[in-house]
Structure formats: structure tokens, C-alpha cells
Amino acid sequence: MTLRLMTWNVHRCVGTDRKLDVARVAEVIAACRPDIVALQELDVGRHRTGGVDQAHRLAELLQMRAHFNAALTVEEERYGDAILTALPERLVKVGPLPGLPRLRGLEPRGALWVAVEVGGVELQVINTHLGLVPREQQVQTAELLGQRWLGSEGFNGPAVLLGDFNATPFSRTYRMLTAVMRDAQDSLGKAPTATFPSGFPILRIDHVFLSEGIRTVAVESPFDPRARTASDHLPLVVTLDLPAGSAPAAA
Q1: How far apart, in whole angstroms, are the C-alpha atoms of residue 92 and residue 139?
Q2: Structural domain of residue 35, as residue ranges?
Q3: Fewer CB within 10 A of the terminal residue: the chain, N end or C end?
Q4: Residue 249 pLDDT exceeds 80
């Protein structure tokens, strides 16, 4: 069975033209026809973006449901990541990722885990957005690879880890991740797709990592004017072929 996944850092729905436009972001997503959407840098109830719950509004426009994890909370204002889908799903876990306490001013980071049922197969999906400092990324990756996340008993069967890792394939962070999971772009036999910056994408910092048994069918990234303008990243869309016959995992 096939499934379309998208990961996209939407830059709080503020485009490269500096316009706040949640509907434009929804239009880009809809045009890609994803079954599951992992988004980073969403504002929920923040004054700077008009107090809109961007996760809820995007889900509403796309006729999906959203699970949101606030990496940063300041009174009633929140900022973080979300997973959207219209497929049957259940929230497994949300939580923070460690930073570097000695380096002040680093943005808090977190992860969000949702189990999605696809034709009787339960797919484990973790969305994250790692920090900018390489050592910080490595600490956060070690946490993701540990017993609370990828190493937990519930993270079995077909599984996907995706998001904005701020790490290129030449980084130690990337090597840590590919020692455990496979980059979805590795098996296609063609040049991999870059997503940043959106106007002239030359860097691969947005990734989709797969567990064993999942086959990559196609990888694409829209490059029309609307997609290039809607955020400073382009979406990364991966079509997967899931193994059949996996029983849903225990909660």
C-alpha cells in the first residue's frame, strides 16, 4: 500500500515576501496531496501572527486533524510542531528535547509522536525540529535514539522519523540517524532533493528516515512560485510503499 508523507518548515506561515498567509500554506500542502503532514515552526495564539492557532487552522482548511507540540510556551503563546492527517490516528507522546544549558538563548526543541493507521497497518511517525548548533543537534539526536523515543517498545513495526534536522548529510547528526534508520532518498538512484533555501535550494536539512521494510517510491519538492514564496523552506514529499500485515502496536 502506498502513502504520501510531507515534511515542511513553514516559518510560522510567513513567506519570503514577509506576508503572513496561512491559507497559502494550506494551498501548497493540498496541491501535494499528502496523507500525513509533519510541520515545523507553527505559531499557536501568538501576538506576532495575529493570535491564530495555525495548527488548528491548517487542519481545518485541509479537512484533517492536528496534533501539536509546543516546544516554546510563553504565557498563552505557543510555538512548535504538528502532525496533520485525515487517517485514523492516536497521539503516542510529545515532549522536549535537551539543549545545551551553558549556551543561553538557544531555542527550545521538541518531538511529537503519532501512530497512524494505514489500511490496517499502524505507522509510527515522529516529527521533530533540531537545533542549529551541531553539538546541540547531537545531544538531541541521542535523546531521540534512546529509550524514550526510537528505542521504546512502542516504536515497532513500520516507522518514520522526519522533520527539519538542520543537519546536512555531511554532519555527524545525519550519520547518527542513518546508523539506525535509512534516508528515504538513498535508494532512488538519482540526485537527492534539496529544500533550503526555498528560492534556490542547495541544502538538504529536511529529511525523512525510514525503518526496515518501507520502500521509497518517489521523492518530490514543489518549486512553483507559490511554494517558493510560502516559506523559506520547500516542502519535501515522499511516496512510500508500506509492508502489509503489521498489527497495530500496543498503546
Answers
A1: 22
A2: 2-241
A3: C
A4: no
Q: Which three cell numbers stand for residue 32?
A: 501535494
Segment 109-132 shows an average pLDDT of: 97
Rounded to whole angstroms, the Cα distance separating 128 from 108 reads 12
Inform me whether the pLDDT recorded for 246 exceeds 80.
no
CATH classification at residue 81: 3.60.10.10
The confidence band for 186, taking pLDDT boundaries of 50, 70 and 90, is: very high
Residue 117's DSSP bridge partners are 122
Q: Given its phi and psi angles, is residue 43 left (phi above 0), alpha (psi -120 to 50 degrees) or beta? A: beta
Phi first, then psi: what are they for 174, rounded to 5°?
Answer: -60, -40
- Specify if 250 maps to a domain: no
For the chain, give the percent of residues with pLDDT over 70.
97
Q: What pLDDT is recorded for position 248? A: 43
In a domain, 142, yes or no: yes
Rounded distance, CA 117 to CA 88, Å? 5
What is the C-alpha separation between 47 and 150, in angstroms, rounded?
A: 35
DSSP secondary structure letters along 128-154: EE--SSHHHHHHHHHHHHSTTTTTSTT
Distance in angstroms (rounded) separating the CA atoms of residues 227 and 244 = 33
Query: What per-residue confidence (pLDDT) applies to 245?
Result: 61
3-state secondary structure of 98: coil
Identify whether 99 is part of a domain.
Answer: yes
Would you state the pLDDT for residue 102? 85
Asked whether residue 42 is domain-assigned, the answer is yes
